[in-house]
Fold:
Amino acid sequence: MYKYDTYDQAMVDARVAEFRDQVRRRLDGSLTEEQFRPLRLMNGLYLQLHAYMLRVAVPYGTLSSAQMRMLGDIADKYDRGYGHFTTRQNIQYNWIKLEDAGDLLADLASVEMHAIQTSGNCIRNISSDQYAGAAAEELVDPRPYAELLRQWSSFHPEFMYLPRKFKIAVIASETDRAAMKLHDIGIKLVKNDAGEIGAQFYVGGGMGRTPMIAPMIREFVPLDQLITYAEACLRVYNRYGRRDNKYKARIKILVHEIGADEYARQAEEEFAHLLGQGVEPPIAELERIKTYFQDPPFEAGAPDTLDRSDPDFALWVDRNCVTHKQPGYISATISLKPVGGIPGDASADQIRLMADLARDYSFDECRVTHAQNIVLPHVRKADLYVLWQKLDAAGLGAANLDRIGDIIACPGLDYCSLANARSIPIAQKISERFAAQEKQDAIGEMKLKISGCINACGHHHAGHIGILGVDKKGVENYQLLLGGSEGEDTSLGKITGPGFDEEGIVDAVEKAADVYLANKQGEERFLDTYRRIGIDPFKEAIYD
Amino acid sequence: MKILTGNDLKTGAVVWWDGTGWSKYVNSAADVGDEGDIIIAREEGARRVFAAYAIDAERSADGVRPAHIKDRIRAHGPTVRDDLTLNPGDPDTSNWVI
Structure:
């Protein structure tokens, strides 16, 4: 994985020193809160419902074991013994003291991490496929390109004050595991008819209060023009994106209002101009970055079979592990969704254990997924049983990846000052209602996503079943959506009708599942059945 | 009644105006009547609190209860972690929030 060079480290260290001084000046009264607020937000420090919250960037979700261990140590040293992995592949701490922030950031910098650009109207952390570099079906490892974009977007002077925040995802597989078309820019690495690899650009997607699926605006950008084209896309947005209304300021609104064709025309015009400006980094820089993402030293001829005699282990393998490009290896997902648990939360001890397991069994590397789980990307099949036993003993052995218990949920009103309703208790109740293995197996693939407000951090628009918490005259109320997907078949869910209270929404989910089971044909997933029969049979059952 | 809440500048902890200073317990909150803005301006200026605002609440034999669920969760702590509330391990306090 990528290692900081002296420039990277110097930039991060300088920012730590700068923020430490800003905190000192806030505490001694030299800075007012009004002056300090944008400075702390630039360093990922929010004020949430109970305290300061720090959001730490995990570039494209990739962590070394040393970094993961530090995240666990920080949870103990500066927080209350746990962290929350987010749908942006980052981690958040909920109980940070302002007076500790400088020391915390220095600890992060010691393992090449930071919280820069995890807030504010700038280009945020680049997200990617959690199986990058391991997936059997991928064209290339997308992470070098994500890293190049990270370097380009970090402290980019032109893009620090965009009309609104800006999120980019990069994938290189036909299977979309990064919700690519629901980003401001989604980049898919593809091969053209001449066999060359380039970037396909999708611009103007997003969730939030106005969900939109990004249209493709360029089929193929040569890799030696990748940054120049991205810069052109951002320039058009920076110039014409609306700054008069924050609810209409995302690029999706601009693309929607002027049309994808007109946006693409303007981007091409800017691109043509920029091609003569020397914006593109030398291709040697991309090649340098690629050297950090070479395959680990896989064992040739590693045993490619598994002893499945332990049924619990066999179930976990079937649910949580996926095929690796290297025979004898597998990618294993550690579910952070035990029955009745808090989606995405992990204790300091669990985080350190996962760090140790990454070191011992996955070439020193792990990944955060946008579904709030952790992946060990390169595990020898011969080591898998021992690995699973250690996970299971630590409460990390849930076998429910992409099942109804694998719920995405934002922090909701339990932690978030923007939320209108709690998300976590709903996730817990659904998880408990469907805890029985046979229920989960019968329902099969199910992506259930819960947001506590219209900002959609819990991706409710993209859930096969989505739940949106709203405030109805001071009382929590939950709307049900059906038919969303954030995969390669991206679609937006539709609201079924009037909302429910806390118990009612769990019943409604069960009724929707029952309609699916009653109408399922062959190997259809819930989503397939929904698309075939439409929303009406579900509405009839839910509102009967 | 009108009560004031905000966050402690150094720690970010939720605090409530008790008439003479800031307490972490909502039951200590004082009715500020129409004086909220004056108190907030003075206390934020002295950096004893920030992000302060006034809310509606009711006082009963059980104590002070903010009118809105968001402020009750601020007063109590997350409803999903009994160990992190102001009354760790007491499940009844979660019922107070709802």
